[in-house]
Amino acid sequence: MCGIAGVWNVDEAYNVIHDVLLTLQHRGQQSAGVVVNGFKSVKGEGLVENVLTSERYIPGTKGIGHVRYSTYGSLDEIQPITAHTLKGRISVAHNGNIVDADEKRRFIMESGGIFATTLDTEIIIHYFSIAPYANPRESLQWALSRIKAAYSIVVLHDTFLAAARDSFGIRPLFYGKFQEGYIVASEDVALRVLGCEEITEIEPGTVVFFTDNKPPEIVRFAKRDDRFCSFEFVYFARPDSNFYGVNVHEVRKALGRKLYEEHKLQADIVVPVLDSGFSGALGYSQASGIPIEYGLIRNHYIGRSFIMPKNRQDIVRRKLAALNAVLEGKEVLLIDDSIVRGTTMKLIVEMVKEAGVKKVYVGIHSPPVVGPCNYGIDTSRRSELIASQNDLEKLQEYVGADKLVYLSVEGYREVFESCGVRGICMGCFDLNYPV
Amino acid sequence: MCGIAGVWNVDEAYNVIHDVLLTLQHRGQQSAGVVVNGFKSVKGEGLVENVLTSERYIPGTKGIGHVRYSTYGSLDEIQPITAHTLKGRISVAHNGNIVDADEKRRFIMESGGIFATTLDTEIIIHYFSIAPYANPRESLQWALSRIKAAYSIVVLHDTFLAAARDSFGIRPLFYGKFQEGYIVASEDVALRVLGCEEITEIEPGTVVFFTDNKPPEIVRFAKRDDRFCSFEFVYFARPDSNFYGVNVHEVRKALGRKLYEEHKLQADIVVPVLDSGFSGALGYSQASGIPIEYGLIRNHYIGRSFIMPKNRQDIVRRKLAALNAVLEGKEVLLIDDSIVRGTTMKLIVEMVKEAGVKKVYVGIHSPPVVGPCNYGIDTSRRSELIASQNDLEKLQEYVGADKLVYLSVEGYREVFESCGVRGICMGCFDLNYPV
Amino acid sequence: MCGIAGVWNVDEAYNVIHDVLLTLQHRGQQSAGVVVNGFKSVKGEGLVENVLTSERYIPGTKGIGHVRYSTYGSLDEIQPITAHTLKGRISVAHNGNIVDADEKRRFIMESGGIFATTLDTEIIIHYFSIAPYANPRESLQWALSRIKAAYSIVVLHDTFLAAARDSFGIRPLFYGKFQEGYIVASEDVALRVLGCEEITEIEPGTVVFFTDNKPPEIVRFAKRDDRFCSFEFVYFARPDSNFYGVNVHEVRKALGRKLYEEHKLQADIVVPVLDSGFSGALGYSQASGIPIEYGLIRNHYIGRSFIMPKNRQDIVRRKLAALNAVLEGKEVLLIDDSIVRGTTMKLIVEMVKEAGVKKVYVGIHSPPVVGPCNYGIDTSRRSELIASQNDLEKLQEYVGADKLVYLSVEGYREVFESCGVRGICMGCFDLNYPV
Amino acid sequence: MCGIAGVWNVDEAYNVIHDVLLTLQHRGQQSAGVVVNGFKSVKGEGLVENVLTSERYIPGTKGIGHVRYSTYGSLDEIQPITAHTLKGRISVAHNGNIVDADEKRRFIMESGGIFATTLDTEIIIHYFSIAPYANPRESLQWALSRIKAAYSIVVLHDTFLAAARDSFGIRPLFYGKFQEGYIVASEDVALRVLGCEEITEIEPGTVVFFTDNKPPEIVRFAKRDDRFCSFEFVYFARPDSNFYGVNVHEVRKALGRKLYEEHKLQADIVVPVLDSGFSGALGYSQASGIPIEYGLIRNHYIGRSFIMPKNRQDIVRRKLAALNAVLEGKEVLLIDDSIVRGTTMKLIVEMVKEAGVKKVYVGIHSPPVVGPCNYGIDTSRRSELIASQNDLEKLQEYVGADKLVYLSVEGYREVFESCGVRGICMGCFDLNYPV
Question: Can you give the residue ranges of the Glutamine amidotransferase type-2 domain (chains A, B, C, D) (predicted)?
């Protein structure tokens, strides 16, 4: 997963992008990068505040930025990437995947093209370059229309900043007015935190061009067919973000409520697995009347510390600690948003048992993840998805819970519908992939 | 405030201290330091994972460590500090203050002594050196008994590790068995996270000596007179820590409950100011039946980023964001543990109002802070304590709340008594200081 | 100017390249880079020992490396550069320039190609990629034969290491046997220092392929037409390097001797401008019988210190100091290899005068530099070449010498002929450029 | 060995000290440190330009600095060191040793004093602190008069900068006028390079105080008894430095001449071992008429590279390369200033032989080093001094030369006398130590 940002006509573009990426940091902590006017760049592995330091400040009023959680591509290939073309220099950062990337790379290379990286981003630049137009804007539109992709993208050119979403609108993208210019960001919360006005969700299948002395121009390059990633709502986005005008925290609460309605599972306390399970646990608590409690404490200072014991158990124990005083002697229902490989949940259940609970139940406010994501979420290969290999009984046994419940696929879909979210992608839950 | 750690006879002392300090990181993020056998040290400004990196690993099985939130002393004076004396080399890290430090420094300097730092720690070393004993252990006991202090301390000598608390036991200190040796830490959670056994709270007025081939020896050097810092329970410690066998989260909940009992203030939702107000808010919610809600989101990736706008308002807005979908149109009761200077709460109230609430109330689950702390918490000088300069009405006006309520001093004391916590220090609330 | 290195089948390729580049460091101090098997790279600005540190070690037995003194291209574009092509991954480092680079870039871009950098190196990769051959070796040969260039080059492919010189052989390149494999380097001294055997100068117009289980294969791709850069002898190479089997120091001495023969200029002492003028001064001293003296001391610890006063005068004074005890009251003849912009010599003359000399003469053991170098030496644009804008009298006045003498173009050519050096390029002296 | 610097009332003290230390860098490359007004410091291992970077700039107009070549003390104890005393803060940097340091440390510790470091410098601070005077200047004078030492020292106090030399004047120290203030430095060349005026050599047994609004005050604290380290002339100082008004390069040349006069050893060429043997070789060449030649090339880019092969032979070969074209077939006389352990010379002789010389002779323009230096030069323990364990015949055999000649002790002394250098220390040559 990734977070992207773009600015046009703002003071100290570098600092503004820094602040936007800081608010998008939850979307990727592996690397950060910025390109500012003149296509000067600062990039590095690690968190925004370690990479985009004030010592590396680049002056300028336009630019794009990127934070990344490794998916495909090697770690040292840090976006944005920049190239020189006949149509001017261009720099691109994207969030998502090109579905037929291998084919397209091959096609380009067969025509003699070379690739500096293994990133899908570079394919977009090649298409921009080979587009049968002299005009860079038309070339970009052509490139976007030719690529079967699931992405949001920001593009910096000498003459414009462009922000686009694929026709399915799988990944989010927003822009807002800031000072005399504009900011683009993956989530609206980043725009609100900076005090933007007129915050707008970019429509699937459109590209917005920001140029000097003109309002943003919206150009449709593909028919809209909404299949927004529902996992953004469930797990990825910040609770104070909104997609389709619907608040993420509220959707998670609704999923938690639905989970209660489907199973009516009783317990003494509802304990969220921090931080991802909090909203769902609140919904479950409100629907069921079972008090929510603080039974697991997360250490927010643990980042990418390499000294720490490498076995997963020790890592989990240093990140999450059980609050024995709260758990002891209780029937405890742990709520989390999802289970991918299952190893972390198994360790949490173990830790909670050691705290002396009477029973431990696990409630997941989404359906079992049975398929990989082809659109930019690193949910590992299918063989590692525990729910794709095991039935519920075996899963329950593996994680060690006295009971394990999931939300049904139907229930899940209903919640989104009732919340008013337009078409969503549920591929990882129902194997029904849009492209 | 500070966190301290010590280890004796463990594999890879450096790494173990690293892990202990990581769990104590909430006690200080300004600097970190470690001294390992042979008195080699690694020190630096910043977080544990940035300072105590694996590249700087020092082999050894014994050592002490320190994390610091600036109080007195300049930032580059990072503990532990080490000195050569006639009685051997000695390294010291402490948490707290020497009350008559200025007098004692002057006395030492008048005798011709010199100080390499401005740290109170160095006074302890001087007293160790001038103690009328040839034996280092007796010298340390003598030094501890002569110093009017409010501190916990770890001392590394060629022949022992010592861990001591002053007679009032103002700052916490624990030890536990680990492998064939021992670990000492400011909070018991750090020992539990590492899997220690036989975790023991060090008694006020005693020093524990860890030496080879012997169980820990406990020596009393002063009469016990418990005045444990109640602010450790209210704000400083992790919720999953315990002092006097009493859980911090449970005390905070009890304070929240008491706050409701004293004021019966009603609202549509109770919203904790994250992360410090969560436990109290939960107590308030449970006592009142008003649902707890997630109305403020904290960005945990914001550390000590220096690029960020320097005005306090922008910093608060990047750290905490209002969740409009939750707050809009509601009567909201914000719960926090305390108000020191008042500026942050004023900005939070402003932000909550902008989210479109009907009313905003503020509940503080401790009494007004009217005096500074002389024992190691950096609660600023009296003139900056907003509650020491203003009555409740003016305070309420300043923070901009429709109503502001505090817990009474009596109510506060009762909660601790009912929880079974022995004598506490409430100096910052009632100006009744122990020393 | 640049230095290049390549290794094939050696233990710890990274370390061997490090050591080769260290001996080639005089060819470029601005940046250093290495690519090792699997196309992992380490690159950075600064000296070899600061960039290619042991912490960044990459395992492997094959690789190429580069040190650079900025010519064209921005500083952050550090060689070697790597690309993915249909014919495999390829990494290239070169020393020199492509003469018609702008045309060739344009041609590639008009065919839809994109460039990740502004380096000429990337053009070679594009030609490799578009070559009408499936075979990577044939493709490289085709690319080399198509490019009008003045360069030496090393190329790493999954299946071979290649080392080539253009048809004029403007830049040097050597290889030698090392352990079970081979090392390639810009100067033979780097191979001798490492203990290589069978050191061979690569012939202009040929490429040498190093592959597994075979001796090096030499392939001619262009007709040889020797125009070796005479400035390599005069200034750039180490004195203990040899080209065409002729020692650099001996050529410089011969130039110094010739300078005496042409002018018979007398003085009390001959003082070399360190380090570049030493060999020439020795030749002058030997031919004239005037004693050589140590009248200017160079501080070798001054590298790229940015604190130092930015005006040129202060920089020169910190780098070179006059030895008053030697200079005072003497007629002094300063010997240097060349004058480019003239500013440094002016400051040196000033400094020498302040030391109380009776007379100061300047002897340059090469002709006036009247044209820029188009083949990789950064001798600035023509307008900055002081000798291209002024006659000898004005030059003498500008540098402030009592007399200024140059070697004649004819005398210069004769020295090379008599030393047995095959065809040389003297473009910067006689504007007669080979391509 | 070390280099020290001090400044009083200059603009940008940090930068000026940086520049002075850069010129003194040959006196120590292991660490560098600076303390500027307010006693803020920057310290680190490595070269001046890596440690005292512009990012670490500290504003101020007064300060002291230090560069160090390890002698006693661990590497992380980097000077200057600072302490708080009753008489104010004080910071000290010194070059040399306290002869009875162990006794004095013990005495201080027996009185209850503690030491933060193992440096002799701290003893001086203790004596300053215990001095029976309230006045800091009188206290410093008392401390200097009580300490049997061989040192030069700079001291920064809130109210003055002091610069002193012990009664023997073993280590050099100078000051000069700069802008409205003063600079102190170990060698006069550093003052000349910066453009100082009225450069003055501090008299042995005196301390110079620099204070505001007054000319420097010179106070004698001990009787002068000149025993200046003759090794400063032979090896340590820069050739363009002067002591007692006598130029270092000229003394070295005189030593080279004397070496010829004593032995009349003939050869085809005289080859200096760079850089230390150059001046002596020039003297030998001038006296003998044998031409000086450039037969060994030094790579100045090799600093403290840790990747390089750790065996001494490889290191020497990468630092020094034989110039075969010059050496082949010749009778070669290598000239160096001294032989300490003998291992490097052995490797050089080997290398020169491999270049195909007819004969290789070695001439050393100082007597055999038979005793260690107790005054700050790190000439290793006596057992490692090859000349203290072997007669000349065995030495010659060990280094592998066809002939090895040294200057006689008498001849050595005569040269200094005839040059007009006052009393010198020759302890390492004749075991006649001054203290």
Answer: 2-213
Closest by CA position to C156, among listed C301, C35, C336, C47: C35
Give residue B38's pLDDT.
84
Residues of C within 8 A of A83 (CB-CB) are 114-116
Crossing angle (nearest 10°) for helices D312-319 and C13-23: 40
CA distance D257 to D365: 9
Phi first, then psi, for residue C36 (nearest 5°) are -120, 165
Nearest to D129 by CA among B115, B90, B87: B115
Q: Measured between alpha carbons, how far is A40 from A60 in angstroms, rounded to an integer?
A: 10
Cα–Cα distance, C94 to C186 (Å, whole number): 10
Question: Tokens standing for B261?
Answer: 């009992």
Residue B73 has pLDDT above 70, yes or no: no
Whether residue B306 has pLDDT greater than 50: no
Residue C112, sorted as left (phi over 0), alpha (psi -120 to 50) or beta, turns out to be: left
Residue type, D244: Y
Q: B interface mutation test: which of D110, D114, D129, D130 has the most B CBs within 10 A?
A: D114
In this prediction, residue B318 carries a pLDDT of 85
Taking residue C344's Cβ as centre, other Cβ atoms within 10 Å add up to: 19
Q: How many CB atoms lie within 10 A of CB C138?
A: 14
What residues contact A120, with CB distance under 8 A and at least 6 apart? A72, A73, A94, A97, A98, A101, A149, A151
How far apart are the C-alpha atoms of A44 and D395, rounded to whole Å?
56
Neighbouring chains of A at 3+ CB pairs under 8 Å are B, C
* Chain A partners within 8 Å of B53 (Cβ): 306-307
B419 is in an annotated binding site: no
Q: Around Cβ D188, how many Cβ atoms within 10 Å? A: 24
Dist. CA A333–CA D423, nearest whole Å: 90
What pLDDT score was predicted for residue B148?
81
Query: Chain D within 8 Å of C318 (Cβ-Cβ)?
Result: yes
Question: Are the beta carbons of D130 and B115 separated by less than 8 Å?
Answer: no
Residue D373 in marked binding region: yes
Q: What is the pTM of this model?
A: 0.90
- CA quadruple D4, D7, D8, D12: dihedral positive or negative? negative
Cβ(A238)–Cβ(A260) below 8 Å = no
Task: Read off the pLDDT of each residue in A167-187 and give the average, rounded to a whole number.
Answer: 97
Name the residue among C326, C222, C239 with its Cα closest to residue C278.
C239
Taking contacts as CB-CB distances below 8 angstroms, the residues of chain A near C115 are 83-85
Show the tokens assigned to B295: 């109305």
Provide the shortest C-alpha distance from residue D205 to chain B (in Å). 25
Mean pLDDT of chain A: 92
CA atoms of C121 and B16, how far apart (whole Å) = 50
Given a contact cutoff of 8 angstroms between Cβ atoms, the answer to whether D360 and D250 are in contact is: no
A75 touches chain C (CB under 8 A): no
CB contact under 8 A, C307 and D19: yes
Instruction: Identify the structural domains of chain A with CATH numbers, from first to last.
Output: 2-226 (3.60.20.10), 250-423 (3.40.50.2020)
Handedness of CA B184, B190, B196, B201 (dihedral sign): positive
Substitution target from B109, B114, B139 for chain D, most D beta carbons within 10 A: B114
- Reported ipTM: the value is 0.91
**pLDDT value at C341 more than 90:** no
pLDDT of residue C71: 53
C-alpha pair distances (Å), B7 with each of A313, B154, B171, B178, D255: 22, 10, 19, 9, 60
Length of chain D: 435
Q: Roughly how many angstroms between the first and final C-alpha of chain B, as a whole number?
A: 18
- Whether residue A402 has pLDDT greater than 70: yes
- Write out the two tokens for A178: 């800031």
Structure tokens at A140: 């970009």
